[in-house]
Amino acid sequence: MTQIDYKPIDAAIKSASEPFRRLTDEVHKVLVGQENMWRHMLIGILSNGHVLLEGVPGLAKTLTVSCLARGIDTGFRRLQFTPDLLPADLIGTMIYQPQTGEFKVKKGPIFSNIILADEINRAPAKVQSALLEAMQERQVTIGDTTHALPDPFLVLATQNPIEQEGTYPLPEAQVDRFMLKVTVTYPTREQERKILDRMARTNPDTSIKPVLSTSDLVKARQAIDDIYIDDKIKDYIVNLVFATRDPGAMNLDLKELIQYGASPRATLMLTLGAKANAFLAGRGFVTPQDVKDLAPAVMRHRIIISYEAEAEEQTSDDIIKTILDHVPVP
Fold first, then answer.
1. Distance between CA 306 and CA 246 in Å, rounded?
2. Verdict on whether the full-model pTM lies above 0.90
3. Opening angle at CA 309, ends 307 and 312, nearest 5
4. What is the mean pLDDT of residues 64-77?
5. Angle between helices 231-245 and 316-326 (to 10 degrees)
């Protein structure tokens, strides 16, 4: 058996991850708690994957995204999604120039690096389809011309799980385009006390200095590609995803609870996410715990539960927990 020398990889990881530690320190001058949300957002930007944040109002979702954008020396646009939004409001349109008799392209706000799609489920289906092309292909079509979006391009979307009036549920095809779906929870009592001290004023200080450049991000992504992942862990990832499609093969009694299992995109995203998790931990190799940490956020929106599961008050998170508890860990 070949012995892997991790020292050169670890050295590269330590160098490439330093700007992200500075970014975390800078953001936490404003942000209190929400470590899980913040870590998953970093994993999304490191893995070149979009992130969907779901939580009730007031949990600092929008604040965290804007802090991330301001901490990186790159473009940022906040888009407030509303029921009357049109695709042209997002991607742009063709404007007639009477002086020349020609049409000129006016690019929309989607042409930026980090996009905050606030309350994404308030936009109608036509807007969702326009955003889908941008998220998957990193390009948009205006008229008969296709325009590439800037690199990096990342969509960080928020949605409110409790208010359904005037909302349009995201199509399954679009939900699958999000690498991660992060459930944002309430802060602890101690964290909320700290929030009070820091933010309970008429003009709280939310200034963030840019401490990370685009070149730092490119270097980090190259380092992540070099992180070692053992064949046994690759098999473990495939087993977890296959357990959502054929639970009986893993001796799991879940078939009646799952209508559709996770897509192959889940396998790819779980692998990339595990590598990014190892990167943030300063390691040059992936452990099974990296996979376990990312599995809920990668798979919760890719498993479609059955009516039987709803009747038994079982969620996709409950199913994922059962799978993680029973699939053998290498």
1. 14
2. no
3. 110
4. 86
5. 140
